[in-house]
Amino acid sequence: MSSTAPLRILIVEDEILIGLELESLLQDLGHEVVGVAATSADAISLSEAQHPDLAFVDIHLADGPTGVDVARRLADIGVTVLFMTANAKRIPDDCAGAQGVIAKPYTERGVRQALAFVTRQDVAPADGTGMTFVPFAKRAGEVDSHA
Amino acid sequence: MIELGMPVECRPFVQSAGRGPAATSFDPFALSFAAARMAMIITDPRQPDNPIVFANDAFSRLTGYARAEVVGRNCRFLQGRGTDPQAVDHLRERFRAGEGAEVEILNYRKDGTPFWNSLVISPVRSDAGDLLYYFASQHDVSDKKAAEVALTNVNHDLEEQIAHRTRDLRLALDQKTALLHEVDHRVKNTLQVIASLVHLKARRTDDERSRRVLLNLADQVNALSTAHRLLYAPEDVSRFDLAAFLEELMGDLVAPLPSGRIAVDLQAEPLAVSAAKAAPLALLIHEVVSNALAHAYPDDRRGRLLVRAEKLDGNLRIVIEDDGVGYSPSPAQAGFGRTLIDLLVRQVKGRIEWRRAEPGTRVTLTMPLDAEEALF
What we know:
The complex is a heterodimer.
Chain A: E1 8-12, H1 16-28, E2 32-37, H2 40-50, E3 54-58, H3 67-76, E4 80-85, E5 100-103, H4 108-118, E6 133-135
Helix pairs in contact in A: 2-3
Chain B: H1 11-18, H2 28-35, E1 39-43, E2 52-55, H3 57-63, H4 67-70, H5 85-96, E3 101-108, E4 114-125, E5 131-140, H6 142-203, H7 208-230, E6 239-241, H8 242-254, E7 262-268, E8 272-274, H9 278-295, E9 303-312, E10 315-322, H10 336-347, E11 351-356, E12 361-368, H11 371-375
Parallel strand pairs in B: 7-9
Antiparallel strand pairs in B: 1-2, 1-5, 3-4, 4-5, 6-8, 9-10, 10-12, 11-12
């Protein structure tokens, strides 16, 4: 997988170990992590201060299932959003402005696929079934199949 | 003349029924009519408004009206507030067509009490076919109607109870499903935390051997995670899709290798395996495949790895075949990987066979399927 221009990425995740490891992984892949937010308020204020290119957003945060609202706010200010969740059923039908979902537990490959998709290096995976990453362009039942 | 207390209007009927001069002292038909326990009337459609021309004693007993009170009147005085207008319309139409009718209609006695009247009306015609009279019998079926209404009420109550219980059951099922999703969510999250923890440790470990051990452990956790991601599909939470799992797992395992070095040829029938076998099977396949990737292709050799899963004589057979250098499957050299494989094979009650495949190594795992799995 060829490298692209480094992205400035915000991680919105309340499990600190997951956030830290994802940060390391993204750094290994050559990107810059502008912060790890555990609550919706932190996520929004960090985004407004840092203007990241991309945000990985867990749906369940320290202040409740507020990831969907965070995604809407971030999408409104021009941040590309990817959900990370073990329960894709929580994602509303309009996708809340997000580009895709990484199913938890994710693997390094799932994260790579998602990055390749948002940087348009890669076409969407042919079949969403069982994939760790599912772009929302083809969201019609597939996401639910491994909710 | 016969003494029946009949009004004069009735005589033509008696003569007609008697058919001739024989009916002199009494007419058996007229007598039977008058004495019958069934309420009966005769109306004359040739007179204006089709009035009653005769009513027997049983009719008076049923309705409370004396004969003199009803003769000359149309029957509609029996109708009241609760009478179904549709039944009345139906009767009117039948009369207009000159035909008989059978209806159950709510009528009222003289004292205002209602009763259900099973009314049977027959036209009486002359030999030439001209309509002469209507003959109508009345029968009180209030008891039967009451039973019908009670039955309808019981049915309605039962339907309501069933609807209520169905609602309760659906609610309980929804709660159970929500709970299952919540538990599933937590398990996945915990697996993710474990994988992250091991990865973080590996990143911070300087010792190369320790780091390899940790990364191998992270891979094993990932294999379990992949199995879990495919569990709890909404259609059936008791089964897990082996073909989809193999596809995911193979993708994860070859992803770190330089692109195209190892081509994976996956031939998997769609197989639904019991969810209880997901974890041991995931670990087992992970071990065998990572073994092949680690030992069959030294010095950046390129190659092709075949993974085939199929149902065979009630067994699940998984063949993993590489075209590499042929690594030794001898147990003497086996590390924990082989011990783990043997333990897992025992857990799924299967057997495993390692064979030189010229080139490479072929590993065949055979395990019994339960009756339900064999159906798929």
